[in-house]
Amino acid sequence: MYEGTPGEATPIFAEHAAAAGMDPPRDGALLDVDDGRESAMVRPDPRDGRFARTDGAHVELVFRSAGEVLAFVEGVHRSLAVRLVPVPRDAVMAYVRARLDAHDPEWTAFVADAPKGERWR
After folding, report:
1. Strands 84-87 and 28-31, bridge-based pairing
2. How does pLDDT run across 35-67, given as a tens digit for each residue?
3. Contact 72, 36 (CB under 8 A)
4. 21-30 residue pLDDT tens
C-alpha cells in the first residue's frame, strides 16, 4: 500500500508498475483505503527500489485481529465503486514522457537498464 493523495495516483501507479517489471499498463485504478487508519495501525514499510516516491510511501496496515481484517475488507468491498481512483493508460504514459523529457534520473535509468524499460518510452 502507498500513502498518497488522489493527485499522486498516476505517478504512484506508474512507478509501482515499472518497478514491478510490468509492461506499460493498460487503463487501471488505485484503491483508496485511507480509512483503514481508523481500524489499523499504519506502519511505514519503505522499500529500496528504483523510485524514491513509491519506495518512501510504502506502508502496511496492521490490524489487531483477523476479525478486524475481515470487517475492513467487507467494508471496502461494499464501497468499492467510490474507492476506485481511475488511472488511464494515456495519463501514465504522459507522466513517463514528461519525466523523461525532464531528464528525471530515476526514469532515465529505468528505461536504459530495466528488462522492459524501453517499452516505457
Report:
1. antiparallel
2. 766 778 889 999 999 999 999 999 999 999 999
3. yes
4. 998 888 999 9
Nearest one of 45, 51, 54, 47 to 4, comparing CA atoms: 54
Rounded Cα–Cα distance for residues 119 and 121 (Å): 6
For the cut 80, the answer to whether the pLDDT of residue 100 exceeds it is: yes
pLDDT, position 36: 66
Task: State the Cα angle at 37 between 32 and 39, rounded to 5°.
Answer: 115
Question: 3-class DSSP state for residue 80?
Answer: helix
Evaluate whether 13 touches 92 at the Cβ level (below 8 Å). yes
33 close to 1: Cβ distance less than 8 angstroms: yes
